[in-house]
Amino acid sequence: MPDADLDAIGARVSAARRAVTDRGETFYQGPSGTHLASVPPKERWDDWVELDSRAWPARRERHYLLVPTTCFNCESACGLLAYVDRGTGRVRKFEGNPEHPGSRGRNCAKGPATLNQVTDPDRILYPLRRSGPRGSGQWERISWDEALGALAARIRAAITEGRRNEIMVHIGRPGEDGFTERVLASWGVDGHNSHTNVCSSGGRAGYQFWMGADRPSPDYTNAKVIYLISAHLEAGHYFNPHAQRITQARANGARVIVLDTRLSNTATHADHWLSPWPGSEAAINLAIAQHIIATGRYHREFVRRWWNWAEYLRACHPGLPVTFEVFEEVLATLYTGFTFDYAAAESGIDAAVLAEVAETVAGAGTRFAAHVWRSAAAGNLGGWQVARTLFLISALLGAVATEGGTFPNALNKFVPRPIHIPPHPGVWQDLTWPLEYPLAQNEMSFLLPHFLAEGRGRLDTYFTRVYNPVWTNPDGLSWMEVLTDESKIGCFVALTPTWNESAYFADYVLPMGHGSERHDTHSYEQYDGQWIGFRQPVLRAARERLGEVITDSRQVNPGEVWEENEFWIELSWRIDPDGALGIRQYHESRARPGSKLTVDEYYGWMFDHSVPGLPERAAADGMTPLAWMRRYGAFEIASGQGASYEQEVPPGELAGMATAPDGRVYTGTAEPLSPNIVPTGVPEPDDAGRRPVGVQIDGVVRRGFPTPSGRLEFWSGTLAAWGWPEHALPGYIKSHVHPDRLAAGQLVLLSTFRLPTQIHTRSANAKWLDELAHTNPVWIHPADAARLGVARTGDLVRVETEIGHFVAKAWITEGIRPGVVACSHHMGRWRLDGGPRGAGGMMATVGLRRGESGWRMQRLAAAGPYESGDPDSQRIWWSDTGVHQNLTFGVHPDPISGMHCWHQAVRVRPAGPGDRHGDIAVDTGKAREVYLEWLKLTRPAGTGSPGGLRRPAWLIRPLRPARELYRMPQHARQAR
Ligand code: SF4
């Protein structure tokens, strides 16, 4: 089309837009601010009319009730609007909820694909019980009543026989704030296990040692410089809510710096893309920090007031005067070794480029927004120092809780108090919190098979919930070995909407709802504000809006699919039918004593009593708070939080307080632990049981940070006291894949990256997503390919790890650094021959056998078209669904954070004549040796640990046992 015509069209469009703007109709008046053409105004959510696209050219109208819920496909919890067809009573589609303050009406591809999951022909619709040997693929349908009766009897017996530590619930994606932890607390069980140590513990630990909060909350929108160590725009934590704000900032002129060894989608949007050698990121951060220090561009007043420099000087330089000027002199010497040349030698990035980046960062001042979550922090031995050194830059610039800076997450997250808070359990679970890892950020979940194998304990009843340990964890065949051993796990219950590699070995498979079929509340740090979101069964809300009474989510969900909350309440009642065990009281109605708590009362109470501003807002609209949340799905509690650590503690709160010499202000007496299952951001009591309430800064008591000192901990007394003084300052730990540690010919395998349109194993039952992304070739640089003899993209390569190998297709690309290969972790889904279909478009059928040299998995049939209730399953055109690389990785627990260090030292060679795509070989004997090697790196807690504790009391723990359980058991080994 000629340019003149395009100009004319553009002018007409602009004129039309102006006309609409003049009428005041252009932009939605809620959080999204998007164009009205894409967002139904909330006043019309009871009867939204669209033309039926399938009826075209006839103009047939369809009428919809629009019902909010939240997406459950990643932890962002973006708002969704379900379009419930008033004619059919079914959900026609999901789009963004413009009333949601975090996602603001926008979603990634996985949000609308919730519809695929709901209508998935392969989903599990009824409770199932194993009817043959474990893993044989034989199942029988049973009633919920039978399943609940059997499980309640087992759990009740374990509790009454003093075997509480034999009950465990292992959580994959939480997607809610504390419900499951409280269920376990009500049973008196320390049985919460999480996936976090294979996900984000490295990043969390680095942040926690600094500021007492384990997550950063960057204010991207207002930043001048954004520094990302990850593919954050496409696959980061809270990535859609963050990505839209980063994009907004870029449009306003912000500079974006991305450290990512791969040319990710995020890297393509960067002003500076740095492709460092894996594990060198902390060295780069320290070179930038050194530049800021050496050029005097740090925020001197912020450092003086808020760093714990005095504590550091006293501990590490006892001969020096404790003055800020002396500290500055010391600081000037600490990182002089981290020159740009040194960082260049470590990272492979030109020193001049690093200098230019450092100058950009130094110029950001307090508008420096930075983030690392998984990525390098999850890949490397010492990866937690990547987060710690990154926050060092923020702390030097004073860019902490400033406009455009980085907040502690606790300031931008809100967790309401629930109707019942059970006490802390009176047991300590060593299988998840062993003495070897006293500083572990989260449960040592991925070591469970090894702990069970060496007889540290046994599980009577093991639940997985939105979790697939065989597939997700490293060393999955060791998982399979214990899951099939009834002497180690008496009963395995998979709570899951869909089949997965672990559920095949379960005794009970119980169908749970997707994001539009269950209740949850959540709040995540996505900007400088606080919001709460409400996930709900959308057909329940729709039918209630039309006047029906619904009392159980099974009345509206497909088949007998249930929601977890109702399931846990019912199970708890059956465990303690007469209330004699003291469990039932935490699942009872307050309004109707003696009867069961309903989800309406649970959330109604929470919204009435615990969400500031919501009752008033609802009343203004003539609704109850619960009705308001069912109608709009999310509520913004506050925005523009600012630096709340600066708040003065009112004199009235200080009566009876004691001030320590370092300025920490405490309650005078020992207090119980806070109910951490309702995280508050309030500091935990110290080891003597005193609860900090503030810190004196220049004679004024301010709120401060939830750290032992109340300040930002440049020097961590906790790390020093618990056996790691050499890592108490932000520093650089050479990775297990540092070039010095690689044998000749080895490469580094990056195995952690996500694809934007898939999410672990959660999204495989979404046909639209499967068509977009279904395979995971191995990225190889052309120079490496030539050296290794890999001729072309698509050729098979054998990737050898320390415990086995996998065979995959090569993708020869300059998008990866030479010496490094990469393989995305979503793919390679499999089902055992003869088992249920699982995810028809994404799972290959495999044979698995054990020989003298270990396990061998071979593909028997690729994914392909198949008959089902959905005609699209006949249209599957792909057969390559990648390879399950995680099976071939040994466990690499970081001795401090406990994070599994995902990067692998591998050899890559062209596949041999006997190799076929998808082949996997694993020696679980070697896997055990790897576990023992990494175990040697630890410095266990012992009777000489500070305070005689197993673990510092102030560190976060998702489910916290009673205080006395923190004391070392008598039989514990001496600390080293
Ligand atoms: S999967 Fe996408 S739409 Fe869903 S919560 Fe995550 S970012 Fe939001």
How do you describe this structure in short?
The chain has 28 helices and 34 strands.
What topology does this entry show?
Layout: H1 3-22, E1 48-51, E2 61-70, E3 79-85, E4 91-96, H2 114-118, E5 128-130, E6 139-141, H3 144-160, E7 167-171, H4 179-186, E8 192-194, H5 201-211, E9 216-218, E10 225-229, H6 232-235, H7 239-251, E11 255-259, H8 265-268, E12 272-274, H9 281-294, H10 300-306, H11 309-316, H12 324-334, H13 340-347, H14 351-362, E13 368-372, H15 375-379, H16 384-397, E14 406-408, H17 448-453, E15 459-465, H18 469-472, H19 476-483, E16 489-495, E17 508-510, E18 520-522, E19 529-535, H20 538-545, H21 564-575, H22 599-609, H23 614-620, H24 625-632, E20 634-639, E21 657-659, E22 664-667, E23 692-697, E24 700-702, H25 717-721, E25 747-750, H26 767-772, E26 778-780, H27 782-788, E27 796-800, E28 804-812, E29 820-822, E30 830-832, E31 844-851, E32 854-861, E33 904-910, E34 920-922, H28 924-935
